[in-house]
């Protein structure tokens, strides 16, 4: 499994926006997860291959938007109204089967990109 590559993380203030990007090459559902120190890696959002069906965790619904790039070779996560509790390492991965909201259903994890939101 070739790992995916995330980019776009950084340090921002509460209320700011940030856009993450994940380079993809296969026709799978792609998900974004995040993990903060001492916590489990948790589901954030996912999008199907075509890009017309999306899924969100309740904690980010209305603030984050997942989308496919026009050439279908990226999956972006637009994060608005960021909060300090959004601070985490963000990962993208392919969905290989099973529950869409469970880490175990995904693979080809990238190394992640750090997002830090200061208050």
Number of strands: 11
Alpha-carbon Rg, integer: 13 Å
Helix content: under 10%
Distance between the termini: 38 Å
SSE run: EEEEEEEEEEE
Number of helical regions: 0
Question: What structural category arises from helix and sheet content?
Answer: mainly beta
Task: Estimate the mean pLDDT confidence.
Answer: 95
Bulk shape: globular
Largest sheet: 7 strands, mixed
- In the predicted model, the low-confidence regions spanning at least 5 consecutive residues are none
Question: What fraction of residues sit in β-strands?
Answer: over 45%
How would you portray this structure in words?
By secondary structure, this protein is mostly beta strands. The chain is 0% helix and 46% strand. The chain contains no helices and eleven strands. It has strands at residues 5-7, 10-13, 18-23, 30-35, 42-47, 54-56, 64-68, 74-79, 88-95, 106-107, 113-118. Strands 2, 4, 5, 6, 9, 10 and 11 form a seven-stranded mixed β-sheet that branches. It has a four-stranded antiparallel β-sheet with strand order 1-3-8-7, with no helix packed on it.
In short:
The protein has 119 residues and is an all-beta fold. It has strands at 5-7, 10-13, 18-23, 30-35, 42-47, 54-56, 64-68, 74-79, 88-95, 106-107, 113-118.
What labels describe this entry?
11 strands; four-stranded antiparallel sheet; seven-stranded mixed sheet; 119 residues; mainly beta; globular
What's the structural blueprint in terms of helices and strands?
Blueprint: E1 5-7, E2 10-13, E3 18-23, E4 30-35, E5 42-47, E6 54-56, E7 64-68, E8 74-79, E9 88-95, E10 106-107, E11 113-118
Parallel strand pairs: 2-11
Antiparallel strand pairs: 1-3, 3-8, 4-5, 4-9, 5-6, 7-8, 9-10, 9-11
